[in-house]
Write a structure and sequence with these properties.
6-stranded parallel β-sheet, 3-stranded parallel β-sheet, binds manganese (II) ion, 11% strand, 17 helices, 323 residues, alpha/beta
């Protein structure tokens, strides 16, 4: 006699997929966006249930860690940022409560008020169950390597949660000097990557990781080309210039975890694994800017052993984020 396996059992044996750079726009942040045109992307960003879950289901994504979309609360006046971040986090908490087996969250932080941002991170982790924070690049033009942001990182270490460093648009001075006549370079194809790669390296040369040896940073887009560049950073120019006890590469490999958001490229993945180690690579999509199904289709076929594929799909995230 032959029994068909019930669907639930088939699902239980399938590879679990967790995506961790999946965005939304809360009403609180939306209110600061000005004249935002209605668009398919904005419709998706503002959906916290049916539409989001449908696209997760179609792609086989079991669980998504949600984060406020750019620019989150990074470019607001300090007092406005504090209220906006709190409202965003409470909004996200409600969405998670409605679907606790499908959604988790990264905190939005009012970085223009660093001490309040540290307190908000603590509230989100200890009271709302969030798994860390995501910060959208610079805060009113300031990099997080500036000492005034140290309280945020100190608190992340105290709470033992990672900080996800996400791109923001390159600042106007850089944009004008580099891409005045090439607006198509401003965003995902080049500008975002340059901004976040620079930001990552500036965190290292600022001495942040000498002060906080347990700090964990997540970067998307497979590290914005960092794995490809690490060998070259071992030259003494950076280390000597920044007076660092170790090479930049050593800090990067110790403190950074990378995700696949919007970077579904076999050769880049292999480079990232080789440089960072398999346990440092986590799956993510970057929804709704990138299609979920494109991400999981790639994840299922990119050349990896099944054990390694499973680690990238969910195992590494479960470990790092204590899911
Ligand atoms: Mn993103």
């Amino acid at each position: 006699m032959c029994f068909l396996k019930p669907a639930i059992l088939i699902n239980e044996t399938a590879m679990k997929i967790i995506a961790i750079e999946e965005h939304f726009t809360s009403p609180a942040v939306f209110a600061h966006l000005g004249n935002t045109k209605a668009s398919g992307i904005m419709t998706k960003l503002r959906d916290m249930g049916a539409l989001r879950l449908k696209e997760m289901d179609e792609a086989g994504i079991d669980y998504a860690l949600l984060s406020e979309n750019n620019p989150a609360a990074q470019n607001l006046a300090p007092d406005v940022a504090i209220a906006t971040a709190k409202a965003s986090n409470d909004f996200l908490f409600e969405a998670i409560q409605a679907n606790p087996t499908r959604f988790g969250g990264f905190a939005t932080l009012p970085t223009p008020a660093p001490k309040a941002a540290a307190d908000e991170l603590e509230r989100c982790v200890t009271k709302l169950g969030f798994k860390g924070a995501m910060i959208m690049g610079t805060s009113n033009g300031q990099f997080l390597s500036d000492k005034e942001f140290r309280p945020i990182f100190e608190r992340a270490v105290k709470l033992d949660v990672p900080v996800y460093l996400h791109p923001s648009p390159v600042m106007p001075a850089v944009r004008d000097a580099y891409f005045k006549d090439e607006p198509y370079f401003h965003n995902s194809g080049l500008g975002f990557g340059l901004e976040t790669l620079t930001h990552s390296f500036k965190l290292i040369t600022s001495g942040l990781f000498d002060e906080l040896p347990a700090l964990k940073i997540i970067v998307g887009h497979l590290g914005e080309a960092a794995p490809f560049l690490l060998w070259r950073t071992t030259e003494n120019i950076i280390r000597a210039g920044a007076k660092m006890p170790k090479a930049l590469k050593d800090y990067y490999k110790t403190h950074f975890w990378l995700t696949t958001s919007g970077a579904f490229q076999d050769s880049a993945l292999q480079c990232a694994i080789t440089e960072m180690g398999l346990d440092r690579i986590l799956f993510s999509v970057d929804w709704p800017y990138i299609d979920n199904l494109q991400g999981t289709t790639w994840l299922k076929k990119t050349p990896l052993s099944e054990k390694d594929r499973e680690a990238i799909a969910s195992g590494n995230a479960m470990k790092l984020l204590k899911l």
